[in-house]
Write a structure and sequence with these properties.
It is a single chain. The protein has about 450 residues and is mainly beta. It folds into 2 domains: about 270 residues, Jelly Rolls; about 140 residues, Jelly Rolls (Sandwich). Helix content is about 5%, strand content about 35%. It contains 2 helices and 28 strands. The strands form 6 sheets. It has a 9-stranded antiparallel β-sheet. A hairpin with a 4-residue loop joins β7 and β8. The model has no long low-confidence stretch (mean pLDDT about 95). The protein binds 2-(3,6-dihydroxyphenyl)acetic acid and fe (ii) ion (FE2). 2-(3,6-dihydroxyphenyl)acetic acid binds next to loops. This is homogentisate 1,2-dioxygenase. It is an enzyme of class 1 (oxidoreductase). One of its GO terms (biological process) is L-phenylalanine catabolic process.
Length: about 450
């Protein structure tokens, strides 16, 4: 690697340029007859060539060998990684679901990031380029000489337990808990542990679109996730030693592997606006009421993958960050509700304001479309009586939500084999008694 440290370029959706060696980018054009340093030019498209300029995403990579130098892909298996959600292997339920923390791998087995992917829920499928999947990752070893790229969609990765050391074709990212990263469709990457510590977290995969910052409307030009806080790695390449590398891909839901005699992280320079990025959730500029009422959680949207219907997301990534609660004459925790969208939640650290127990870091919950949910009975009683002084809510905590307009199915693993579904979750609300008084 030409540099061991992590260096980043600031900004969201910028047209970046980055050179690990001076003047490695061709001057003034993309495809000169011969590239500087005898590199190969390769374009990676993230949108159709013909996508309008406002949506067009592509990057030019200048690399030691083009990606095409590999043996044919052979099918391989990954039974717990699911991308098609229509069939019998998936189970639908309108019941409220909650999961205790998902397991880390046993010390007796070595599992890397890709091997440790397990799908919990999803909708649609990649071949028609519409839908999403929610995965858990849990691993205790490096990917070593293997790299993965997702042919099916973009992956928003939410580390919960320990940091990820991610090498990508565009450079290196260190992503800690309370940070997130997005690795788009087609980008090759490899995940290593930091100081050998096991890792666990959540992934939101979207098949058809890329994540954007939400529109701000009347909020104005600033606030929520500010563009300059998104970080994209600088170009960094591995010196080549002709040892074999395995290239893995999920292609239309199935896993394939190919071999090549060179490291795929051989990009000496790149430019463009299709590149991975990370974001520190602590930088989120929280906007909320300073008068009354509980405001809808869309105010906490970090990133959105829009559908073609205005204002309706295939998936929103929403967080519940530390903040001041000041609302007067207001029941401050989340309200009781039935949502036309489906809400998968996870907890990165701490407690969640809507629940007094049972929702733990590394676990999850799913309240599907039109499924009633809200504060548990204890939270309801406490918040109904609480003195309404300004208070910090959710100090040292971070919960998040993957919210989708699609109807989610759960996988066999998610509902059964993971063994983490809390059968008594419904009891959280059973003590909400009739308090109705006419006098
Ligand atoms: O259900 C949840 O806990 C998420 C949520 C939080 C909130 O403040 C308002 C609505 C909502 O769905
Ligand atoms: Fe909700």
């Amino acid at each position: 690697m030409s540099t061991d440290s992590y260096s980043y370029l600031e900004g969201f959706g910028n047209h970046f340029t980055s050179e690990a060696l001076k003047d490695a980018l061709p001057k003034g054009q993309n495809t000169p007859q011969k590239c500087p340093y005898n590199l190969y030019a390769e374009q990676l498209s993230g949108t159709a060539f013909t996508a309008p300029r406002s949506h067009n995403q592509r990057s030019w990579l200048y690399r030691i060998r083009p990606s095409v130098v590999h043996t044919p892909f052979e099918p391989t298996t990954h039974d717990l990684l699911v991308s098609h959600f229509g069939g019998d292997q998936c189970i639908v339920t309108p019941s409220q679901l909650r999961w205790s923390p998902f397991d880390l791998p046993n010390d007796s087995e070595k599992v890397n990031f890709v091997e440790g992917l397990k799908t919990v829920a999803g909708a649609g499928e990649p071949s028609c380029r519409t839908g999403l999947a929610i995965h858990i990752y849990a691993a205790n070893t490096d990917m070593n000489q293997s790299a993965f790229y997702n042919s099916d969609g973009d992956m928003l990765i939410v580390p919960q337990h320990n940091a990820l050391d991610i090498t990508t074709e565009f450079g290196k990212l260190l992503v800690r808990p309370n940070e997130i990263c997005v690795i788009q469709r087609g980008i090759r990457f490899s995940v290593n542990l930091v100081k050998g510590e096991p890792i666990r977290g959540y992934i939101l995969e979207v098949f058809g679109e890329h994540f954007e910052l939400p529109d701000l409307g009347p909020i104005g030009a600033n606030g929520l996730a500010n563009p300059r806080d998104f970080l994209t790695p600088v170009a960094a390449y591995v010196e080549q030693d002709n040892t074999p590398w395995h290239i893995l891909t999920k292609f239309n839901g199935k896993m394939f592997a190919a071999t090549q005699q060179h490291c795929p992280f051989d990009v000496v320079a790149w430019h463009g606006n299709y590149a991975p990025y990370k974001y520190d959730l602590a930088k989120f500029c929280v906007i909320n009421t300073v008068s009354y009422d509980h405001i809808d959680p869309s105010i906490f949207t970090v990133l959105t993958a829009k559908s073609t219907t205005p204002g309706v997301a295939i998936a929103d990534f929403v967080i519940f960050p530390p903040r001041w609660a000041v609302a007067e004459n207001t029941f401050r925790p989340p309200y009781f509700h039935r949502n036309c969208m489906s809400e998968f939640m996870g907890l990165i650290l701490g407690d969640y304001e809507g629940k007094t127990g049972g929702f733990l870091p590394g676990g999850g919950s799913l309240h599907s479309a039109m499924t009633p949910h809200g504060p548990d009975a204890k939270v309801f009683d406490m918040a109904s009586e609480a003195e309404l002084t300004p208070v910090r809510v959710a100090e040292n905590t971070q919960a998040f939500m993957f919210e989708t307009s699609l109807m989610l199915s759960t996988t066999q693993w998610g509902l059964k084999t993971c063994g983490k579904v809390q059968e008594d979750y419904y009891k959280a609300w059973m003590n909400l008694e009739n308090k109705f008084r006419k006098d």
